[in-house]
Amino acid sequence: MLPAPVPPTGVAFAELTTPDPELPAGQLAALGFTRTGAHRTKPVSRWENGGVRILLNTGPASRREGTRLAAIGLESPDPAGAARRAEALLAPVLPRRRHPDDTPLDAVAAPDGTQLFFCATGRPGLPDWRDDFEPTGTPAAASGGLGGIDHLALSQPWHQFDEAALFYRSVLGLRPQESVEVADPHGLLRSRAVADASGAVRIALSIGPAPSDERPRAQHIALATDDIVAAARAFRAAGGHLLPVPANYHDDLAARVELPGDVLDAYRDLGILYDEDDQGAFRHCYTHTIGQLFFELVQRDPGYRGYGAVNAPVRLAAQHLAEQAP
Asked: Which domains can be identified in the chain, with CATH numbers?
């Protein structure tokens, strides 16, 4: 009998591989993260801001692949049950080279190779991945108003897009949302998100405009905040660089949406994009890309269920211009 799905209940961590931690570490520090731990047996550091945890891995794989999002730790009410479900559906269970003292964690590979770890952070009687880290600092209270990971965006190889959507639905029990197409300087991108019922775990999947387009595409981590203007200003004041947005975007926004003048001025200054539906509003802005990764700051009203897809062409065009800049 097929084991029942065990939907994840949150994101324990996101793990980045990087050949040189200086740039991503600098960006994390500007976002208010503190280096709080070093892995006992691996070249991995832990960074925290409030309840958000990012791991930086400088192991051998990072020298081949550059800075990228390589693994996601998913909080699970039953990690062993989630692993049994994955194995029953023939999802590749990842063999792990680990030190005898390392915490045993079940993990599977998504179709694009992203590693998914089933975690029980802080659950009595169950292995806790945090035990593998020696403390290097004390986590500060949430800085910049960050409250968690709003969503993770993963670009997919063309031939694995539908397989990936099926994987996250059948193996993890996440619910697929509608598929959307957005304009990119090189053609149309297709995107589909999957999420749990509460919205605690959201993963946006995307593919390029054609099977022949094999250019690497950046992935990103969207960080939730309850005050995006304050978070963006704090990031910039700490030396971070926000993605600039063309001025005509906010001219058009002023014509479409009634926003107070001081709010619109702040959005223009910081490159904050805006969307709304009949349930609420969505405000977001972006850091510069490092390797194949960038961060997004997100302020989401509780009723809003989208990802600001209407603004994706603006973001993609701005990133394309940034790539062309000397």
From this structure: 10-135 (3.10.180.10), 146-324 (3.10.180.10)
